[in-house]
Model the fold of this input.
Amino acid sequence: MKAFTILIFRIIPTNLLSRCFGYMAGLALPSFILDRIIAWYSAKFGVRTDEVACPDGGFRSLDDFFTRRLKPGVHVIAGGKKTIVSPVDARIDQFGAIEGATVFQAKGIGYRLDDLIPSGYHRHFIDGSFITLYLSPGDYHRIHSPVDGEVAGYFALPGKLLTVQEFMVQGVPGLFSKNERLISYIESDGGGVVAVVKVGAMNVGRITVSYDGVQTNRAFRRRMEHFYPPGKRPRVEKGGDLAVFHLGSTIVVLFQRNAVKMDSFAAGDRARVGERIAVFR
Done:
């Protein structure tokens, strides 16, 4: 049954369906309709509504709600120059060492760094370390910088939009390197280059970043790796805005060899924006 479900997801036009979903989610709706949809969605997916900062006049569309901000004080950013924090509210799925150029997607299933980042930049992370964070539909969908530093560049990679539910992660080798991605390269103040790989998925209308106009899941898109010239690199602050999922998906954060020491946690634990997940050595 699982194999048949995976086959169905491979066959259906997930990119087109996701663009349609993104378009519909962006439509302005009357408040008496939208409020009921948001209440249903929140109950079904366990949204922590007490944390939501409702804008003046309320939400105008589903996308406004998906990309909601939270009340001041909900996220507390861990201090320390060498501290690395979670960029998202999410479930920790995998973490650990990158074995040569192989990153682990699930137990016994890996994918290659040069498939995830198909450029020479992937060499920064050979024998490094990683953490994979899964955002559920009920999670807060904004992505924050895990470190202080400068954005050296980005890589926009068109790809599939297969669902990243657990059965697909365990059943489709290289799923994260097949799906659409938008990668931010950050040269940190703490010591080392960090890559924040934002992985698209089915019903993710698009991924946007705070420092540039690039976005994913457009009708006409192309692979594009861009580097900012020295002196013109966008500055990001630890815990500051980095990007937005217009619904939820998965983040893979990559670190260089011997650059960080991970904190103690287990797969399945929850992480919140600003909580310490590692330190630079």
Q: What stands out?
A: The two ends are 46 Å apart (CA to CA).
